[in-house]
Amino acid sequence: MSFFKPFALERFFAKHEFSARYLLCSSDCESFPVRELLAMDEGSIDRLLDMRLGYTETRGAPSLREAIAGHYAGLGPEGVFVHSGAEEAILNLYLAALKPGDRVVVNYPCYQSLAEIPRSLGCEVVPWELRQVEDGPGGPRWRLDPDELPALSGGKATMIVLNAPNNPTGALPTRDEFEAVVAYARRTGAILFVDEVYRRLERDRSARLPSACEAYENGVALDVLSKHSGLAGLRIGWLASRRTDLLDAVAVVKDYNSICSSAPSELLAEIAIRNLEPIAARNRAICARNLALLDGFFERRPEFARWTPPAAGSVAFPRLSDGSDAEELAERLVAESGVLLLPGAYYDYDRSYFRLGFGRANLPEALARLEAWLDGR
Ligand SMILES: Cc1ncc(COP(=O)(O)O)c(C=O)c1O
Description:
CATH architecture of the largest domain: 3-Layer(aba) Sandwich
Number of strands: 16
Oligomer: single chain
Bound molecules: pyridoxal-5'-phosphate
Radius of gyration: 20 Å
């Protein structure tokens, strides 16, 4: 028996990701070639060619950590810990910070590892449910209610885990809501772990939240180049926190898995970090164009599905209007038209929901294929 339950979503992608023609549910934004990345930084081709391929530093190359720290107010390189993707960072943080019996409040629905790893470690995982609300700032949205925290945590949670912007709903707390979460965590001494891998993809730039490592002395932020930057193949993510004692504990864990990240990836990541704004801006523009198309799609197709529009990120979580099983639909759709949707069942959620991804350049074609298939069925 494995220590972990299988990662349902990753197994679904393993089955379809490299055979489906149109990925209409990817969470990562549009990628681009190494050549283009190298062109962003003069002299980088020679640096790459001359690089020696030994081990790198466990916490990441100092210059990379410094470049990352530059994106957070009040954080130095000692507050940055580079990992092989966000996924490794999640595992290492949980292994370093939690013990069996700890209470962990985790927003739901969410990316499976955020809840599954603490559960496997023997923690008491308490779901904090996102709900769809019709009114409030900006109209209908998915919302987490900070007023539920006292009942869920009982003042005892070791850690509160938030994925903001959220995968799969695209939810983003307002600044007041975020501050209320920080205030509660501070009052009870909980670590606030915020998975920020979709940060920088806000529909409205002014809605961007401060990072957890800026907002709270006991906050830990997670980011990665996979989503806003479309560079998932680099496998470079990081934890950012002022809790350097916690990062020291993470270092103990990291010695037992990847030891350090890939040297060429670190060099390429540093170029991306130095050009983070233009890279993320390009993907924000792709998302904005695609969101306008999706708005039109949902207006034209109320009999098919309805959505609560995402506030940020590159994914949304609509529901089939007839309440049927999205997995049946997804399997037929991919077999007959090559378009892939991700069923909500993979989030342990109501089966009539499904995930859409809108960070890819070929969304217009994928959506046209979906509409043609809907017309023909
Ligand atoms: C919320 C969230 N966190 C972490 C990850 C893991 O990111 P990576 O695959 O780059 O390690 C993902 C990937 O989909 C995600 O959606």
